[in-house]
Amino acid sequence: MNDRIVKLFAFIAVSFAVLVGFTSNWTVFDAQNLKNERVNKRPLFNAQKIERGRILAADGTVIARSVAKGSGPSLRYVRDYPEGGTYGHPIGYSFVEFGNSEFEAFHNSELIGDDNEFASIFDQIRGKDPIGNDIRTSIDPEAQQAAFDALGGQPGAVVAIEPDTGAVKALVSEPPYDPNSIPFDLGELNQDPGSPLLNRVTQGQYPPGSTFKLVTAAAALDSGAISLDDTINSPATIEVQGNPLANSDGSDYGDIDVTTALTFSVNTYFGQLGEELGTGTLEEYMTRFGFNAKPQIDLPEGQMSLSGVFDGDTLLTGEDAMDVGRLAIGQERLLATPIQMAEVAATIANGGTLMKPRIWSEVLDADGRSIKTMDPEKQSDVISEETAAQLTEAMTDVVNEGTGTAAALSGVNVAGKTGTAEVPDAERCDGLPNQAWFVGFAPADDPQIAVAATVECTSGQGGTVAAPIAAAVMQALLDE
Length: 480
Hints:
The chain is of the alpha+beta class. The chain contains 16 helices and 22 strands. It folds into 3 domains: 3-30; 35-135, Penicillin-binding protein 2a (Domain 2) (Alpha-Beta Complex), CATH 3.90.1310; 142-478, 3-Layer(aba) Sandwich (Beta-lactamase). The longest helix has 27 residues, at 3-29.
């Protein structure tokens, strides 16, 4: 056979194989991503003919449902949200004109009964109309309401997680929005200076302040850089990279160990510890805790933000120049989402193991039968059980006698850490200077719930503003 013909045949064969591979990946293997793409309207129009499954709270409260409009050929289903803005985040919305968002988008296939392609095709052959599956979430209505009540209209976020399963028990972003208003007010909501469509739990990026000292202490203890008995002289002020770094209360603490430094949130201790650790070790443990990547929660990746050190919009690495002393106390150019800081607390509570956070807990068919349940999944081994126990003891001291006493609960030992950071955009906050934080878990000796609470644009401190909010949510969950 002529060489040219052989080469031409080989070229055609390879090109055909590439075409088959591309179209197979696009239409089969990547079909779900294509369906969930917000600009792809075809599945949304088709979905109007399907009775989309309900979304339920943990106790069966209906969060989202489909309501029939019209009849016969004009029959279509429109989404309704009976609880209004209480679950706007994280549930999101689903409307044919505006697409799907948040939980509605991530779990679209289950909700329209299209999660099993072969079953869907078989149903079509039999002429059976598709019907969506219900999804029960792990969100607790009492904890959700307690978070809203405790925030009291202050802009901020609260998230509560079961440390050993990753189940999300509360997720609140303030200000909220009512998903029912999307078809009428989307433009206005997008222009609202309060950014109600922003899910602050997963998208809000804030300086974490002293809550980040938990990561620094974890890295130091777990790597063997320090032991519990080692001390560092911690005066009122030190110089870090040519600039003064002071303790917030102006005190000279002398020679103190890591437990005392966490209890009283001593900046000069952690500034020196950060320089001793170095950027490489600190970055390694940040990554283990989930920093430098988007949260692995069941929400669309495009609706989540990274946590890490940033230069503008660029995420920095350990090879980039940065002030590790100030990074160690939660400053520098460090930004973190509330879900990330909740994961820090949950990891320590779970003996050093980080579980993937999950909002869904069970999928139910149209007859109410359970067809799939959430199986807890480990995300990473972060620190040893010994290190987690050491941090738990120190965090208990923070609440019992340190900066976090406002998070104390009657008859229950609480472990926690406060944080107060300067807001990066003072103009947006009308001169209010602080971002207030509290992260923690309870009971300290048998953790059932881990919480992160943060308030934007406040003149208060983490211990006075955020700690009581976290306490209210923990109390609501522990009372059940």
